[in-house]
Amino acid sequence: MNIWLVAGLAAVAGVLAEGLILHYLLRLLQESAATRKNYQGLDIPVSAGISFPLALLLIYTIILLFAPLYAQPVKQEVYFLFLMGIFAISLLGFADDMLGQRDTLGFKGHLGALLHGRMTTGGLKAAGGALIALFLALSLASGWPDIIVNTLIMALFANMLNLLDLRPGRAVKGFFFFFILLAFLASWKINWILIAPLLGATLYYLHFDLKALAMMGDSGSNVLGLALGFMAAGSLPLSFKVGVLFFLIFMHLITEKYSLTRIIEKVAVLRKIDQWGRGKSDGKSEKTG
Fold it and tell me: What does pTM read for this prediction?
């Protein structure tokens, strides 16, 4: 079977799986009072992003069941590794969504609290996310330069998408933008079957995010960011990865000092892209991880 056909079917399956899971999950979150006020004061379900790892688990199970039919062999260990990282980072994000207090914000705030003997959920997520990134990097590469760069890229990408998740649809749009950019840098030679289900699931979820029917929360934005980091780590040459790493460091330094929302609102093109597709009653809680 043609690999592009398989990837296309995997993306469609991702759409269907996400639709099925969200149908039940959003009601569960609402009935469990897992809601949060967005910046317009509306109570909407939070942590809807836990649907992403669940959808991936369902689709990967189907992929591995039918693996003998593929023209290309499926390396099961890659799926296991990626899925482990996705579930772990989503769990940390879920803990931050459900238990986190917003009195401590930003990397410096969480680090400062830790140095004073106080662990915040954001600090736990940052430390746990770094360990997850290191574990994945050790499994992907053998040389220490590659391992260090891969670790930083995955950890910073996970937080980068979290920083974008301040307005409806922004994190999803950022995910697709960075995905296309990374795929281009990799000359489109990426593991399409691995990433296709997440592309389909995220595309289906976009409507709910744009119309402020749900917040993906850290449990979703960190998943999207880690997936981008994993893709970069496994597909790009070291020189390109160093360039990506410098960009991520630069963006984190900027967002520690300036509001990303204000920067976007001041640039006409970015403002138009950011506002595309939103309803009149949209919003996200203004927070950073």
Answer: 0.90
